[in-house]
Amino acid sequence: MLYFNTNKILGRSNMLNFLSKKFIRNHQNVKDPKVRSSYGLLCSYISIVLNLILFLIKVFIGVVLKSISITADAFNNLSDSASSIINLIAFKFSMKPADKEHPQGHGRYEYIASLIVSFLIIFIGISFIKSSIEKIMSKENTNFSIILFVILIISIFIKIWIGIINLKVSKKINSKSLKATSVDAFYDALTTTILSASLLLSNFIKISLDGYAGVIISLFIIYSGIGLIKETMSSLLGEAPSDEIVKELKEKILSYKNILGLHDLVVHNYGPNKTLASIHVEVPSNLNLIDVHSLIDRIEKDIENTMMIHLVIHIDPIDIHNKESLEIYNTIRSLIKENINEISDIIDFRVVNKNGKNTIFFEIKLKKEFYDKINFDIIDECTKIVLSKYNNFDCKIFKNNTFN
To answer: For residue 10, is pLDDT > 60?
Structure first.
């Protein structure tokens, strides 16, 4: 992927502030789905208009100069307009309310739009590799005009501006489709720079570099499209939440009184504005059930209001007053972590007396790098460690199947 250090530029992007204030009501409240959608539509309209203008300009220049690389770049701008139209439609569809067929809403339309944009980018790249090779084989010279060359340079700055606008808004509203558009715009600026340089150099050395520049541009286009497909497919398949979100969520929950610990965080993303999550929290077993319910209910509502995450909490009661059980837990935890490198921790620990026999229950939590490599052998190894210390107990150990 291509990266630009745009922090300083983004901070000075007053045009976006002006447009958002003028066309978006309550523009600062980006957590409002309607405001978020309005930002997406604004960026889509800007990209459609400017890319169509660039297409017409570059087609004219390409025809006059007989340049396959400039013509390829022009049709790449046309595909960008089509991509922005797809984004526009996606933002409108993603605002549709939930229904019985789609109870979690339609937010994933944005991911689908990003995927379509990515395939369009690759298609354009492949088609112009063929045209560029034909230009190389024909050895046809490219004309040069300083006025048209200057117009090409201006188009580079227009593309950079389109990229900055889309990148800034993609960060503001967490939109993968706008991020895809911004990356494509920056690649377009780079490829136009390459073809402009080749055009200028060809005028001095009297050798046509147009076809070679066209191949390089096409490869850049294909590379960006493949990268965007990988990123979008990750979201569609269901990617793990970011470390920042996990850390913030856990810190908020642990800040409440009587929350002793937590584990088994699972997050489901149904679009930028629809996130569902579940988690297990440990609470003292001697608490009143009504008090625990009130606490959990308050945490769930607070998380939804502050982080826009619909959270469901499962309660794990912990007997913190049973000294024998706590001693057994600390001993087993230390032994397992010391002797088995693959295990990061043990969770959901309890000692249950059933039919006069004490049974130790717990789950093993594996380190991420060993998650898919461990089978039942490790459970057998844990069992041996426990029974070597507590041979008068039964032991039931399970593998935990979550990352967080």
So the answer is: no
Rounded CA-CA distance 228/226 in Å is 5
Cβ neighbours for 211, distance < 8 A, ≥ 6 positions apart: 68, 69, 132, 133, 134, 135, 136, 137
pTM over 0.90: no
Residue in the structure block whose two tokens are 């377009």:
188
Mean pLDDT for all residues in the chain: 78
Let me know: does 401 contact 379? Beta carbons within 8 Å: no
Residue 298 has pLDDT above 60, yes or no: yes
Domains of the chain, each with CATH number or no CATH: 7-237 (1.20.1510.10), 243-399 (3.30.70.1350)
Query: Integer distance in angstroms from the first to the last C-alpha of the chain?
Result: 28
Count the neighbouring beta carbons within 10 Å of the beta carbon of residue 15.
12
| Cα 314 to Cα 321: distance, rounded to the nearest angstrom | 21
**Which structure tokens are listed for 255?**
């800040």
Longest CA span, the chain: 96
Nearest CA among 210, 45, 198 for reference residue 128:
210
State the Cα–Cα distance between residues 104 and 96, nearest whole angstrom.
Answer: 11
Residues 265, 246: contact at Cβ < 8 Å?
yes
- Picking from 142, 158, 160, 178, the residue whose alpha carbon sits closest to that of residue 68 is 142
